[in-house]
Specification:
Shape of chain B: rod-shaped
Distance between the termini of chain A: 46 Å
Shape of chain A: flat
Number of helices of chain B: 4
Structural class of chain B: mainly alpha
Number of domains of chain B: 1
Structural class of chain A: mainly alpha
Number of helices of chain A: 7
Largest sheet of chain A: none
CATH architecture of chain B: Up-down Bundle
CATH topology of chain B: F1FO ATP Synthase
Order of helices and strands of chain A: HHHHHHH
Helix content of chain A: over 70%
Number of strands of chain A: 0
Largest interface: A-B, 14 and 12 residues
Radius of gyration of chain A: 21 Å
Oligomer: heterodimer
Radius of gyration of chain B: 24 Å
Strand content of chain B: under 5%
CATH superfamily of chain B: F1F0 ATP synthase subunit C
């Protein structure tokens, strides 16, 4: 039976996801408008300088792993991913639930990575080259290699999403355990260190790791 | 008389089984976290090699740091899976 339960309340993780998406959309739109108005003869300053420097830094980083054609196609996606993850993993500093502590949000990242890898393969090596790659270089043992390669297609995105989820969950479980043991006065002091380590340090590292693994697997998928 | 004994035995057995299964789940959670040994050794190895590399080539420190962090995060994955299994077992 069909049930329309759109009026149900959203989970807190989805709410914080929507907040981040709205905030980032606003920031990007403002940056875009400001860049359009920019006078090429003047040096940019303030907010615009920071955003231009960030884009330049990641462009340089992605360029060192990809060819120019793939870079032009995938760089916007990769920059969006890392900005979203960097905000999403540190959002618990503002009292919101980190979005990736919900396995649904984490697996949507898996699905996204899977689709992007398929798009890269379709666009840059084509269906024929992909089938050739799945069968392996040695044709007589192709029936043996095909299942292994097919599992490899799924397991890369799956493990990428799960890695994000478990890292964030481990941090929040650890924080909850420490808060349950300590009195609240000691909890304030311990909370400072806990959130610095688990939210800022591990969160940003995981965002960067997801970004780097996306870069490497996209360039591998479109090269092979 | 006999039925009464049988009844109490059955009740005891169900209670025992319940505690037995939850106890084994906790034991399994503890055993699963032993998998943390592997990532610990692997990350330590990676960090040692990175320190060696910085010692040999101090000007490439930035690139070495980035590579080390990424590879360590990849090596960490198996440990995180074991943690996930343990948490699922505790929540049972």
């Amino acid at each position: 039976m069909l049930e329309f339960t759109y009026s149900n309340e959203l989970s807190p993780q989805v709410i914080s996801t929507l907040i981040i998406v709205f905030f980032l959309a606003l920031v990007f739109i403002i940056a875009g408008i400001k860049v359009k108005k920019l006078d090429p003869n003047q040096t940019p300053k303030g907010f615009l300088l920071v955003s231009i420097m960030a884009v330049e830094m990641f462009n340089k980083l992605i360029r060192s792993y990809m060819k120019e054609k793939q870079f032009r196609f995938f760089a916007p996606y990769l920059f969006t991913i890392i900005t979203f993850l960097a905000f999403a993993n540190t959002i618990s500093l503002f009292g919101l639930t980190p979005p990736l502590s919900n396995i649904g949000v984490a697996f949507s990242f898996s699905v996204m990575t899977f689709l992007v890898l398929k798009i890269a393969e379709m666009r840059f090596i084509g269906i024929k080259g992909k089938i050739d790659g799945l069968l392996g270089p040695v044709k007589p043992i192709a029936p043996l290699m095909l299942p292994i390669n097919l599992i490899g297609e799924v397991s890369t995105p799956f493990s990428m999403g799960l890695r994000l989820f478990v890292n964030l969950m481990a941090g929040s479980v650890m924080a909850a355990m420490v808060y349950a043991v300590l009195h609240w006065t000691a909890g304030i002091i311990a909370g400072v260190m806990l959130h610095v380590i688990f939210d800022i340090f591990f969160g940003l590292i995981q965002a960067f790791v997801f970004f780097m693994l996306s870069v490497v697997s996209i360039s591998m998928a479109s090269d092979a | 008389m006999f039925e009464m004994i049988l009844d109490s035995v059955v009740r005891f057995a169900t209670e025992y089984n319940e505690h037995f299964s939850s106890g084994l789940a906790y034991l399994g959670a503890g055993v699963a976290v032993i998998a943390g040994l592997g990532p610990g050794i692997g990350q330590g190895f990676a960090a040692g090699k990175a320190a060696e590399a910085v010692g040999r080539q101090p000007e490439a420190q930035g690139k070495i740091l980035v590579t080390t962090l990424v590879t360590q995060a990849v090596a960490e994955t198996t440990g995180l899976y074991s943690l996930l299994v343990a948490l699922i077992l505790i929540g049972k």
